[in-house]
Amino acid sequence: MGRIYISFLGTGNYSECEYVFNDRPIKTRFIQQALIELFCNDFTGGDRLCFFLTGEARAKNWETGNERGLKDIIASLGLPAEIVTVDIPDGKSEKEIWKIFNALYETLNENDSVILDITHGFRSLPMLGFVSLYYARHLKNVTVEDIYYGAFDARDQVTGKVPIFQLTQFYSLIQWSSAADAFVNYGVSDKLKALVRETARFFHGSQGVVDAITNVTESMSLIRGGDIVEGTVFSKCRNKMDELEAKGVFQASFKPIFRKVREKLNEFTENNPMNFLYAVKWYLNHKMIPQALTMMQEGLLTFLMEIKKIDYRDRKNREYYGAFLQYLANLKNLKREATLDEEQNKQIKIWGLDFEDKFSVEASSIYNRISQLRNDVNHGGFNKEATSYGKIVSNVNKLFEEIEKSCQELSAS
Q1: What is the mean pLDDT of residues 135-164?
Q2: Is residue 258 located within the same domain as residue 293?
Q3: What is the radius of gyration, based on Cα positions, of the chain?
Q4: Domain co-membership, 58 together with 192
Q5: Is 278 inside any structural domain?
Q6: In sequence order, which ranges of 286-388 are alpha helices (DSSP H)?
Q7: Do 402 and 366 meet the contact criterion of CB atoms below 8 Å apart?
Q8: Cα–Cα distance measured from residue 71 to residue 146, given in angstroms and rounded to the nearest whole number
Q9: What is the pLDDT, as a whole number, of residue 121?
Q10: Mean pLDDT of 322-342
Q11: CATH code at 30?
Q12: CB 232 within 8 A of CB 215
C-alpha cells in the first residue's frame, strides 16, 4: 500500500517550456519533472515514482546524454520515494499492447493510490492506463488520486506557457458507467452512493439525492411492502431530484441517471395498493425471483384487504384473510380439505366476505399457486419435486400476468 506516480516516457525531442497548473509555473524539458514537483513533493520512502520506458525512450530521454536525461533530473529532486523503471515494448501490435497492459497491472500493489501522467507515448496508452486502473480498482482495491496531461499543443502562442489538464473526472465516467449499470440492471445503488460521497462536498444536495435513491433500492431489496404501498419513499426521491436539478449544481454524469431513476419510479404513487404490481415488475426486470414471489403473494393480499377496507398492517387480519383465500382455493381443489377454525369464521363474517364472490374465488386460486411456488423457492429446492429455474421463471411471469389483469379489472370496476 502506498502512493505511486506512473508516467510513460516518450521518444520526442523535448524542448524546454513552462508548464503551468493553477498559475504555478515550472520550467523544464519534461512534464514528469513538473508533475512530480507539483503533486509528489510529499511522497515518502514507502511511495514510488514509476516510469514506463521503451528501449528508444530509455536511450534518448532517460539516460544521460548530451543533455541531462530524466533519470538525473528526477534524482536531483531529492525525494525519498523509490524510483522504478519498467521496460515495455513499443506497442506496435495487439500482442505488445497486452504486454504493456500486464506490465502496468503488475506494477500496482494492493491498495495503491495512483497519480497517472498520460502526456507521452502512443495514443493507445491513455486508454490502457484508464482500463488498467479500473481493472486494478476492483481486483487490487487501487484508487486513482489524479490523472494529468501536459497539453503542449494547447500552449499559449504568445507566452509559450503549456497548460496541465486534470482529467480525473473523465476516469470517473468509467466508474459512473459501472454504478449506472448496477442500478439500472440490478437495482443496486451502493456504487452510486460511494461515488457521490467522494464529491459531495463540491455538489451540495447530491448526497441527499443519492440517499433518497438508496432508500428506494433498500426498500425494494428488503421487500418493505408497507413503504412500497405507502409510496412516500418514491415521491421523496423524485422531489429530491427536482430540487437538485432546479439548483443546477450536480455532477454532469448524474443527469442521465436522474432520467433512469424517474423511468423506474414513474408508476409508483402515494397510498396506492397497486404499487405492489409495479414492485413485482421491478423484481422481474432485475431477476429477483424470490422477492417477486413474496411481493406477489403479500401484495395481492394487501390489495384485496385494501379494497375491502380492512387494515392490512394488522398481522391477525392478514392471517385471517389469508386463511379465507386458502379456504376458497381448497374448495375448488377436491384433493384438499377446506376448513376454517371458529375465530377465522367469526372474523370473516364480521368483514362480510362472500364465499361465492367471483373475484375472490379467482384471486384465491392465484394466491394458492403463488404460495406453492414461493414455498418451493424459499425452501431451496431440497426435495425431489423441486421446480427447475426455467419453469419457476415462466410460472412467475404467467402468474404476474394473471394478477395484473385481475387487479386492473377490479380497480376499474
Answers
A1: 87
A2: no
A3: 31
A4: no
A5: no
A6: 289-307, 315-332, 342-351, 358-378
A7: yes
A8: 23
A9: 66
A10: 84
A11: 3.40.50.10640
A12: no
Domains of the chain: total? 3
Contact call for residues 126 and 118 (beta carbons, < 8 A): yes
Nearest to 272 by CA among 217, 239, 226: 226
174 and 43 inside one domain: no
- Annotate 228-295 with DSSP letters as a single string: HHH-HHHHHHHHHHHHHHHHT-S-GGGHHHHHHHHHHHTT--TT-TTHHHHHHHHHHHTT-HHHHHHH
Grid coordinates representing 314? 394488522
Q: How far apart are the first and last CA of the chain?
A: 66
| 400 and 263 part of one domain | no
* Final residue belonging to a domain, choices 166, 191, 222: 166
Read off the pLDDT of each residue in 324-332 and give the average, rounded to a whole number: 89
The proportion of the chain whose per-residue pLDDT surpasses 70, expressed as a percent, equals 96
Of 45 and 11, the structure prediction assigns the larger pLDDT to 45
Mean pLDDT of 240-245: 89
326 belongs to a structural domain = yes
Regarding whether 44 and 161 lie in a shared domain, the answer is yes
Whole-model pTM?
0.73
Handedness of CA 55, 61, 66, 69 (dihedral sign): negative
Q: Residue 224 contacts by C-beta under 8 Å, 6 or more apart in sequence?
A: 218, 233
Report residue 364 CA to chain centroid gap: 39
Range of the domain at 410: 284-413
DSSP 60: I
Query: 49 with 130, same domain?
Result: yes
Percent of the residues in the chain that have a pLDDT greater than 90, as a whole number: 52
The answer to whether position 387 is within a domain reads yes
Domain boundary among 166, 200, 224: 166
Q: Is residue 279 one of the residues assigned to a domain? A: no
Q: Are 187 and 288 in contact (CB under 8 A)?
A: yes
Give pLDDT, residue 64. 67
Residue among 85, 59, 62, 58 at smallest CA distance from 73: 62
Phi, psi at residue 26, to the nearest 5°? -135, 120
Tens of pLDDT, residues 13-52: 888 889 999 989 999 999 999 999 999 999 999 999 999 9
Q: Are residues 62 and 80 in the same domain?
A: yes
For 182, the 3-state DSSP assignment is helix
Cβ within 8 Å of residue 181, ≥6 positions away: none
Between 379 and 113, the more confident residue is 113
Instruction: Pull the grid cell for residue 203.
Output: 455538489
> Is residue 349 very low, low, confident or very high in pLDDT (cuts 50, 70, 90)?
very high
Same domain for 322 and 248? no
